[in-house]
Design a protein that fits this description.
Elements: H1 3-17, E1 28-33, H2 39-57, E2 60-65, H3 69-77, E3 83-85, H4 88-97, E4 100-108, E5 114-115, E6 117-122, H5 130-133, E7 141-144, H6 150-161, H7 168-171, E8 174-177, H8 180-188, E9 194-198, H9 199-208, H10 210-213, E10 216-221, E11 225-226, E12 229-233, H11 238-250, H12 260-268, E13 272-277, H13 284-300, H14 306-332
Helix pairs in contact: 3-4, 6-13, 13-14
Length: 333
């Protein structure tokens, strides 16, 4: 989508959404769900959870699906989305631009403390490593994730491309952006030579489409990424926030006043265990990662004058140091 179209779309969203209520009366909550796979698959996975939330809170819970991550972020920005499941990168955008706040964090049903970004290739591909991938002779087609995806875009861009001073668009014959499911299937079907993905998405592919999974091979795995946050708009009524918070922190636990086993099965449909409390502090590693990516890209930029580049690098390094100090303080508290 070009800049003009994006501007027009944002204006349309603003004119449509800004007149909507912010659900401060606690009656209707629009729950945003980022586009990690097809909407039909997402709806099937999420409906039991949203129905349980509606039953237990007494709120009218309406799912909000968009074709990309930006659609959910913009929906929250203009008050159309009150609560959303994000990845960490998109949550950071929602906090910075859409009046969002992290209040709980998902927990994988495997007990893992997070998940990993991966690079995948067809099982029979001659590509065996990142070095094989980064020949940068423009002979390969590559699938990147949504630009607001943590594991599909930010993490591989930071640790694979920016770390080597490489621009994917200058490296590959063609670079496309798609959700995790689309990228996985493109690799499995040999439509791209390699793509980004994550361990959670691949677990779903293995479960739902084992034949496709058999045609996928991992060649790189990132450092651990914090589990996904749930974000609400800060201007929700306090009473509504407390109702929502209580639901998330008791659902599927012994503190629930419902059928705990049934609730755990609902969570299992999303590959989750009960939630845990969180805050915007969980985004600090992501902010550091974003700045690391920007620093690497700036260092590789040959278009800037040396003085201008040095000034900008100093600014970014200072921002990064500030976030690193905050992260240390949080870890020690």
């Amino acid at each position: 989508m070009n800049t003009t179209v994006k501007t027009l779309a944002a204006g349309l969203l603003a004119s449509t959404f800004v007149t909507g209520a912010y659900a401060q009366d606690g009656e209707t909550i629009n729950f945003g769900i980022i586009s990690t796979e097809s909407q039909s698959n997402l709806r099937k996975s999420w409906e039991p959870f949203l129905e349980a939330m509606e039953e237990k809170t007494g709120l009218d819970i309406q799912p909000f699906f968009a074709s990309d991550y930006a659609g959910v972020i913009e929906g929250m920005r203009f008050g159309k989305v009150h609560l959303a499941w994000y990845g960490n990168k998109s949550a950071m955008e929602a906090v910075d631009r859409a009046n969002g706040e992290v209040f709980v964090q998902t927990v994988a049903d495997t007990g893992e403390p997070g998940y990993w970004s991966v690079l995948i290739v067809p099982a029979d591909s001659p590509i065996q490593s990142v070095d094989d991938l980064l020949t940068c002779d423009k002979s390969l087609n590559f699938g990147l994730g949504d630009p607001n995806s943590t594991s599909g875009y930010l993490v591989p861009t930071t640790f694979v491309f920016a770390a080597e001073g490489i621009d994917p668009k200058e490296c590959f014959a063609n670079v496309t952006n798609a959700n995790h499911e689309t990228n996985a299937m493109a690799v499995a079907n040999g439509q791209v030579d390699a793509a980004t993905n994550n361990t959670e998405s691949l677990a779903l592919i293995k479960q739902n489409n084992p034949d496709a999974y058999a045609n996928i091979r991992e060649i790189w795995r990132s450092p651990l990424i914090p589990s996904d946050p749930i974000v609400w708009r800060t201007d929700l009524a306090d009473e509504t926030k407390e109702t929502i918070r209580e639901f998330f922190l008791t659902f599927g636990t012994e503190e629930s006043n419902g059928d705990v086993q049934a609730e755990k099965e609902v969570l299992g449909g999303l590959a989750w265990a009960p939630f845990r409390a969180s805050s915007n502090d969980q985004l600090l590693p992501i902010r550091i990662m974003e700045l690391t990516k920007e620093i690497g890209q700036l260092q590789a930029d040959t278009r800037l004058e040396a003085e201008e580049k040095a000034a900008r690098l100093e600014e970014l390094e200072a921002q990064k140091a500030e976030y690193e100090a905050q992260l240390v303080a949080v870890s020690q508290s």
